[in-house]
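As a warm-up, study this chain.
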Amino acid sequence: MSDARTTGPAGFGTGVLSRTAALIHTLLTVEALLLLATAPGLAGLFLLAPDPANLPLAALCLLPLGPALSGAVHALHHRSGDLTELHPARAYWRGWRLNALPALRLWAPLLAWLTVIAFTLTHFTATGLPGWWAVLLAAVGAGSLLWGAHALVLTSLFTFRARDTARLAAYFLLRHGRATLGAASLLILAAALTALLTEALPALLAAPLLLSLLHSSRPVITETQEDFTA
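Now compare it with the structure written out below.
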């Protein structure tokens, strides 16, 4: 799948300032649509008390996030650098329609698995397990999130069966360590913003974070195009 950026002929809409304006417009539009698509779930999430007993309800509130993120990645990948050829809203909703079900097939099991891990860690003293189990569970959770980052990019840009996407995402975890480290740095940044400032900030910066994920995932995208698509 090629990057559908349009450069167009030299002239209005193709200069540095125009490209910058096009990028800002795309980021703001995608961010607004992502927040709109996840608004009911995010509203419910912010109303929940910070109690481990509410983790299953929090997972339900986060279900719309998978398709919304997939639509955003699709729109950002297919963004135009030409100020006269901007259609970010159209690209977003097209990506959402195409990828909503494929994204949910992977996002829902991942969310359930992460919920089990989080619930176990918040009730760890009741399990009677040795402390190193908590470290192991945390590492498994982090690895699952990194797998999810690769799966998000693959689901948003390519058409594979869910099990094939899952296998490719696992394959790329070690195959492209730099891309995985890039995804890890973004997850750490999002966690730090949540812990130090407010949990709303990563949501408000979702579009630039996803654009950074796309840039770090270029080796994954390129190899998938060359070796796993017709």
